[in-house]
Amino acid sequence: xxxxxxxxxxxxxxxxxxxxxxxxxxxxxxxxxxxxxxxxxxxxxxxxxxxxxxxxxxxxxxxxxxxxxxxxxxxxxxxxxxxxxxxxxxxxxxxxxxxxxxxxxxxxxxxxxxxxxxxxxxxxxxxxxxxxxxxxxxxxxxxxxxxxxxxxxxxxxxxxxxxxxxxxxxxxxxxxxxxxxxxxxxxxxxxxxxxxxxxxxxxxxxxxxxxxxxxxxxxxxxxxxxxxxxxxxxxxxx
Length: 238
Ligand code: ZN
Fold this sequence. Notes:
Rossmann fold, alpha/beta
C-alpha cells in the first residue's frame, strides 16, 4: 500500500513525466483519466499508446504499471463554458484568467482521483500541476493542493498523499526530469507520442513534438524545449 500510486494521466507531456516519475518510485502504479467534453479528444487517444510504450522502456516499469481507468466527467463541460470545452476563442477573459480556465477543474479531478485511489488501496495521488510556469490556474497552486489534501483526508478518513513532482520546476526542467528518469528513450517517447496542444493539432511536427505551435500550451512546451536544449548544448546532456 505505501509503495503505490495513482497518476492523473492525460497523455500530455507533464502527466507522462509524472507517470515515469511514479514508475521509478513506487511498486504499484495505476492511472486515471477524465473525459470532460474536451474540444479535442486527441489527448485521450494517445493515452493508451503512451502507457504501452512507457511500460516497454524498462522491465521494472512494465511490471509496476497496473490498470488504467477513464472517469466520464462530461458534466464539467456542461456546467462551465471555457475555451477547452466549448467553441469559444482562446485568449484572456475580462477577469485576467485564461479562456481555457475551467473553474475548479483540478479540484474535481483530484477529488475523483482520491476516490479511485481510496477504493484501489493506492497511497499516493500524483498530479502534474505546476506553479512555476504560472498559467493563471488558481487550482494548480501548491496551497490549493495542500488544502485539498487536508480536506480529502478529513472527509474520507484517509491518509492519502497528493504528490506534485512538477510544482516548482519549469518546462525546461520538466524535459530534464524526463531525461533523468528515462534517458533519451523517454524524451523521444514524450516528443513523439504525448499531446499538449490546445487546438488538437497532430499534423504539424516540431522537434518538441506535434502541435499548432502558437497556442499557449504549444508555446510553453516549445519554449521549455528550446531552453533545455540550449542549456544542454553547454553540458554533457544530449
Ligand atoms: Zn497548439
